[in-house]
Amino acid sequence: MTSRSQIRQQVREQRRALSPREREAAAWALADELGRQRLFRNARHLAAYLAVDGEMDPLPLMLRAWEMGKQVYLPVLIPVGGNRLWFAPYQPGDPLTPNRFGIPEPLRAARQRIPPQRLDLVLTPLVAFDEQGHRLGMGGGFYDRSFAYLRRHRHWLRPHLVGLAYDFQRRPALPAADWDVPLSAVATEQRLYLPQETVR
């Protein structure tokens, strides 16, 4: 089986090869698909991310969420947070500041952040996925650490974790690690993959 690092390299090269027009078209097609799902429609508090390195862009979904009166959050890294994610509210035009990885975060995150348990839906970036709900990220483990309670405690029903990806990021099977937190679903520009019993 191809190693996790090899998969990361291959898929990141594929993503970077897409033209801006191809990325935009894929992002709007994904938003049309996921935006129809109850999983998205019922979420009042949802987290997204700002796309980097050719990632699937959640901006069309964020625009739809704001139009529907939902509260959108972005992930933030707090220096004393044990390398776990918190989430800060975000509206168009809010000031941003780069974190230690150069990824923009809401400037007022320290005062307004909430823990992951307060969210209904989390749109997660990923490098690769399989139809069993396994997600391969960039290797930092931030999402897995932040949502580890979903794996340990069966009574937690929120949030639903939905990966956003291009369909070419799908793999037949990914090498899974013990600490991986499975996704509730993966949305691509072609379809919605539902590896678990998830509200639709």
Describe this structure in words.
- By secondary structure, the protein is α/β, with parallel strands linked by helices.
- It has one domain: Rossmann fold (3-Layer(aba) Sandwich).
- It is built from 7 helices and 11 strands.
- Strands 3-2-1-6-9-10-11 form a 7-stranded mixed β-sheet.
- Strand 10 and strand 11 form a beta hairpin.
- Helix 2 crosses helix 4.
- The longest helix is centred in the first third of the chain and has 16 residues.
- The N and C termini lie far apart (33 Å).
- The model has no long low-confidence stretch (mean pLDDT 87).
Keywords:
200 residues, alpha/beta, Rossmann fold, 7-stranded mixed sheet, two-stranded antiparallel ribbon, 11 strands, globular
Short recap of the structure:
With 200 residues, the chain is an alpha/beta fold. The protein has seven helices and eleven strands. It has helices at residues 4-16, 20-35, 38-41, 59-67, 109-112, 142-146, 148-152; strands at residues 45-47, 71-77, 85-89, 96-98, 104-106, 121-124, 128-129, 135-136, 160-164, 185-187, 192-193.
Largest sheet: 7 strands, mixed
Q: What's the name of the CATH homologous superfamily? A: NagB/RpiA/CoA transferase-like
SSE series:
HHHEHEEEEHEEEHHEEE
Number of strands: 11
Helix fraction by DSSP (H/I, runs of at least 4): 25-40%
Percent of sequence in beta strands: 15-25%
Structural class estimated from helices and strands? alpha/beta
Query: What fold name stands as the CATH topology?
Result: Rossmann fold
The unreliable regions are none
CATH class: Alpha Beta
Reported CATH architecture: 3-Layer(aba) Sandwich
Please state how the strands of the largest beta sheet are arranged side by side.
3-2-1-6-9-10-11
Q: What's the gyration radius in Å? A: 16 Å
